[in-house]
Amino acid sequence: MTYKVTAVVGARPNYMKVAPIWRELEKNDRVVRSLVHTGQHYDRNMSKVFFDDLRLPKPDVYLGVGSGPHGEQTAKVMFELERVFSSGAPDLLIVVGDVNSTMAGALVAVKMGIRVAHVESGLRSFDRTMPEEINRMVTDIIADLLFTTEPSAEKNLLREGVDGSKIHFVGNVMIDSLHFYRPMAERSTILDDLSLAPGRYGLVTLHRPSNVDDPEGLRGILGVFDELGKDCPLVFPAHPRTRKIMNNNKLQVSSERLKILDPIGYLDFIKLMMHARLVLTDSGGIQEETTVLGIPCLTIRENTERPITVDIGTNRLVGVSPERILEEAREVLGGRTRPGRIPELWDGKASERIIRVVDEYFR
Ligand code: UD1
């Protein structure tokens, strides 16, 4: 007996989570699989480049929803996906992470009687002003299979009343990708292209609405990067959201000490991370990747939904005050780093475990 599985991607952090799951699905001859791209992210360097780097197949369905306010974007995904499923529904929808496409996909599926698996379930920042927090909570409460990356996630889910039998601690699919693509990333020429020497630059990313949507707040953080660049040159592939606000407010120009780039592909980014002296970020996934790579990471946020990266990894939460960020970064540059450990089951085999559970579920 075969069963149909559809995986959904929408935004940049989804592609590297779905790629290893897709490979496992391909190995299973009971599975009839399809891939949906919502089009939440659509620029070449936010989408196509990742499909190429990760060798993901062209999506079977492209919804083309594009950007917009949260309600509109979520509704568009729901409207389009419901139409697609009306003419042929899968038995299981796999959604990953916490973007609007994740929640929208789960909502449509559950109302059509399609089972939902949520990968990277149970993470909580306990900050409801983050759109991702709402997406995580809604998705988790309606999903049938919840796959977790770290012990805190299971605790959160149980506290929220989720039936424990739905929860499966499987590890981290983003780390599956890190293991799988690392040899390919090593061959990237990005360091030479940017004239960077291994271990002698910092890598920066910044895109959270709370850090970038207010131009004055963003100016403060960019000022830190500029200052820090005097001690250690920084590379900053800027998210389109951030770039737009920088341009509209004439906030910062690229220089030798703070190289501002357009978004870059997966393999180039992994290579930049692997050889960085430190990473400054407000991303979720990068906190995890740096922990596995053993690279010091300073997270420019007041909270994290990935506490294990702080408890045992190389991640430090440094808040958003420019003085504090600068002080903490100088500590790292001064050599005051701490060795991290790799969290349990972050071993490159999470997707294998996930598909084993799924297969058992449909037996
Ligand atoms: C989304 C996710 C966030 C994730 C981030 C990773 C939600 C609520 N947020 O945030 O969790 O960390 O992706 O990148 O789902 N834009 C482009 N080209 C694109 C995509 C976006 O120019 O291909 C610009 C548009 O101006 C758009 C803005 O970026 O309005 C924001 O895009 P959106 O998808 O709404 O949220 P992100 O900030 O990318």
Shape: globular
In N-to-C order, the SSE pattern is EHEHEHEHEHEHEHHEHHEHEHEHEHEHH
Helicity level, as a percent range? 40-55%
Number of distinct helices: 16
Q: How are strands sequenced across the largest beta sheet?
A: 3-2-1-4-5-6-7
What's the structural domain tally?
2
Major sheet size, sense and barrel closure: 7 strands, parallel
How does this model look, in words?
The mean pLDDT is 97. The longest helix has 17 residues, at 70-86. The termini are close together. Strand 9 (234-237), helix 11 (240-248) and strand 10 (258-261) form a beta-alpha-beta unit. The chain has helices spanning 12-27, 48-54, 70-86, 100-111, 131-142, 151-159, 173-186, 190-193, 209-212, 215-228, 240-248, 266-274, 285-293, 308-311, 322-333, 350-361, and strands at residues 3-9, 31-37, 61-62, 92-96, 115-119, 145-148, 167-169, 202-204, 234-237, 258-261, 278-281, 297-299, 315-317. It folds into two domains: 3-172 and 346-362, Rossmann fold (3-Layer(aba) Sandwich), CATH 3.40.50.2000; 182-333, Glycogen Phosphorylase B (Rossmann fold), CATH 3.40.50.2000. It is globular and about 60 Å long. The strands form two sheets. The protein has a seven-stranded parallel beta sheet, sandwiched between helices. A six-stranded parallel beta sheet has the order 10-9-8-11-12-13. It contains 16 helices and 13 strands. It is α/β, with parallel strands linked by helices. Helix 3 packs across helix 4 and helix 7 packs across helix 12 (266-274). The structure holds uridine-diphosphate-N-acetylglucosamine (UD1). Uridine-diphosphate-N-acetylglucosamine (UD1) binds next to helix 1, helix 5 and helix 11.
